[in-house]
Hints:
The chain has 107 residues and is α+β, with helices and mostly antiparallel strands.
Amino acid sequence: MEIQRISRGRFTHTVVWAVVTSGLVVAIAAGLARATLNIDAALIDKPHIAIYMLLPDEEISHIETLRETEEQHDYLATTKDGMKLVQLRRSEETGEWYVHFMEQLHN
């Protein structure tokens, strides 16, 4: 490649596109990293949000906290099928919340 034949405008155009593309790649990577941190925080730090993420098929419209301890949270959840008792427990190995027990309540 003969560097002497590249015009100043062509060189500037190439450099600008390289900087824009690099910035776009960094912005996308930062956005994905932030989303991953938010999901991780929801599963570990905020069980109120985790119940919606752990039970998407239940179509939960409202939750009411019945009891909270360090290792377990009990909820009364209003779902598409009616009221359900849901117990979330914190995993000892990972610290993430998981559904330990779920029972359909009769109306």
